[in-house]
Amino acid sequence: MFYWVVKAILGPFLHLVFRPWAEGVDNVPREGGVILAGNHLSFADHFFGPLHLKRKVISLGKSDYFTGRGVKGFFTRLFFSGVGTVPIDRSGGKASEAALRTGLRILREGHILGIYPEGTRSPDGRLYKGKTGVARLALESRAPVIPWAMVNTYEMMPPGRPLPKLGIRPGVRFGKPLDFSRYYGMEDDRLVLRAVTDEIMYALMELSGQEYVDKYAVSARIEMERAARAGGAAQQ
């Protein structure tokens, strides 16, 4: 219920101020479990990605978002609950398996599961290598996978910017469902999981127009931070 209250309040405001656009909305099934696999450019994706859909989009978010204290912790919990985020432990190992089971439960209950295969926001607006969890979800659930590409949200609100820029229209493109039925029953094959994930990332590259980088976004961000520190030290 809270999700729809937030959407009813924010939706008209976002449409009026930012004039967001969408393509391919009809590619999203009107019922049943669906995986929306998207690129992740900006914090603004949480607002503009689901905006044009009449179905609720549930995403998996780190449990830290729901454990903060004080006023900031309260509003953080309120926000992520309002945008349909379910808390999970993302520390790896058994926690990763629990996250997978949570995602499968959401899909089997007939909901839309939104997932960002890159695992984190792009540090520079490019599209990075996807993690194979999305492939396991697709093959175990056998739910349709819809590529979900955000456009212009990086330019509007890059990482570190607290408020979005005006004058930039954010958009979202929903691609046609991807068919992975040829791989059903092969969810324990690492090569298959990589092939499925790469196909999803290629579809996102085609939809978004982003440059693709064959490394993980977390690794790229760490490299950029090290380079920035080295550059700062050299100037001293």
Walk me through what this model shows:
It contains eight helices and nine strands. It is an alpha/beta fold. The protein has one domain. Helix 3 links the parallel strand 3 (57-62) and strand 4 (85-88). The chain is globular and about 55 Å long. The relative contact order is 0.18. The model has no long low-confidence stretch (mean pLDDT 88).
Strand order of the largest sheet: 1-8-7-2-5-3-4
Q: What distance separates the N and C termini?
A: 54 Å
Structural class: alpha/beta
| Spans where pLDDT lies below 50 across 5 or more residues | none
DSSP summary: helix tally: 8
Specify the helix fraction band: 40-55%
Shape call: globular
Computed Rg:
18 Å
Organism: Nonomuraea coxensis DSM 45129
Pfam family, one: Acyltransferase
GO molecular function: acyltransferase activity
InterPro entries: Plipid/glycerol_acylTrfase
Question: Short summary of the structure?
Answer:
The protein is of the alpha/beta class and 236 residues long. It is built from eight helices and nine strands.
Blueprint of the fold:
Layout: H1 2-18, E1 21-23, E2 34-38, H2 45-48, E3 57-62, H3 70-82, E4 85-88, H4 94-108, E5 112-115, E6 127-128, H5 133-141, E7 145-151, H6 153-156, E8 171-174, H7 190-208, E9 212-213, H8 217-235
Parallel strand pairs: 1-8, 2-5, 2-7, 3-4, 3-5, 6-9
Antiparallel strand pairs: 7-8
Helix pairs in contact: 4-5, 5-7
